Amino acid sequence: MRRFSQIIALLLASSAAAQDSSGLHRLTARADLLGWEAVGRLDLGGRGFCTATLIAPNLVLTAAHCVYDRSTGLMRSAQDITFRAGLRDGAAVVERRAAQIAAHPGFNASAPLSWDNIRHDVALLQLDEAISSTDADPFIVHDGVGAGTQISVTSYGRGRAEALSRQRHCNVMAAQNELFMFDCDVTFGSSGAPVFAKVGGRGRILSVVSGGGTYEGRKVAYGMALTQRVRELKAQLRRSGPVPNAKPIRRIKSGSDAGTRSVGGARFVKPNGS
Length: 274
What we know:
This protein is mostly beta strands. It is built from four helices and 13 strands. The chain has helices at residues 2-14, 30-33, 115-119, 227-240, and strands at residues 24-26, 39-44, 49-56, 59-62, 81-85, 94-103, 123-127, 150-157, 160-176, 179-182, 194-199, 202-215, 218-224.
């Protein structure tokens, strides 16, 4: 943990000064949710929840530690995990159960928080039935940006578990070795939440929230670069073969480019006890 704290100090020392961050906005009305339906709550068999995002009609992206039972260190059963897209006050736009899980092999569910674990804290869930883009349009994974870039986060969390909350503006405080530090407002249940960088007219997923805490009085969150991790997880799912009894993906053409697109218990810490 001492080494972990030293790296945090180095990152903070090298980061650009953060801009002001905006507060959270609850997506209460259906109109508020428009365009964000692909972000959902990942319910973990009655044992907590995380946040997750649809990145393909049948693929959901989240943090790897969400798919493990913390008490045993074992991977959860896919059938116990439900993705509730756009959940808002008890009603989801659409719900699907997980059929298959690919957690990155570089993530060690039994190890303490470390930069290497954060770097690999990524998982993909293959759903038992694809979600139509008319219900929830998947987001694209971004290939990364430098420190100082303005971002946004959309998540569930403790005290705001029944509807998505969006922070329109927060900042990348530092980026180094496929790791990010953010000043975004996250809490328990925000694990796996998408961190968006705006590209064109719609956000792309820069990272997912791995954990957060405080350092020298500053609230921070941690995430990882995604491009290589997601590529590795997709290959892992392909090697596993087709999911038994999974319903086929129905290709639905729309005015968007969705057809060309390829994704509780959270781990939050306070380094150095601060």
